[in-house]
Amino acid sequence: MNDVTGQAQTSSNSDFSSETMISARDVADFLRRNPEFFVRHPELLEDIRIPHMQKGSVSLVEVQSEQLRKKVRQLNYKLSQLISIAKQNEKIYRVYTDLNVQLLTCQSVAEIQLRLEEVLQEKLALASVTLKLFKGPHALPELQRRLFVEKRFKNEPFFFGRLSQHERHLLFEDAVAESAALILIGKEEPLGIAAIGSSDASHFTPDMDTLLLKQLQQVLSYVLPGLLKY
What we know:
The protein is α+β, with helices and mostly antiparallel strands. It is built from 8 helices and 6 strands. α4 (60-103) packs antiparallel against α5 and α4 (60-103) runs parallel beside α8.
């Protein structure tokens, strides 16, 4: 009878081992499918330990808490970045709005140049600002005018990015302009170019939004013809 019992026990243990062999992957898959498993069995958390290179052994709850804290820190950092960007955008918007109002009261091209320099260089820390008109004593030569209009303003009256050394010299002479924003001024016909330079080569890029500069372009296109007697 003992032999029978022993044989039965051996057979039972063998069957149990073969049928219930569970790998680490099985456990991981199970926990992924049952994320609330430890909520239903909180008593297991007290016995679970996870090796940690710096802290020795910590509980699963501590690991999860640390991961949550890390996510919160990341979210707070992203939020602070968004707030900073929003504040910077608000500042830029106010600067351009004030500039447009000032330009409407200008009585000469020289005054427009002065206002552009005062506002964009002093308040936005841009490196250089210049007006290059297509007519008048200091106008760009006809060949150079065509170069800019045909090369830089094919699809819209704006260009953002880096200029060739020749273009940079024509517009800014010796002033700094590692990257530039160019605005073609004029409604019915081109009157000139407003050029804004930055000391940062990555400041002005082709994917920039044109909303604020479009407003500036409209104001300059409205004010300049009267001052130039066109």
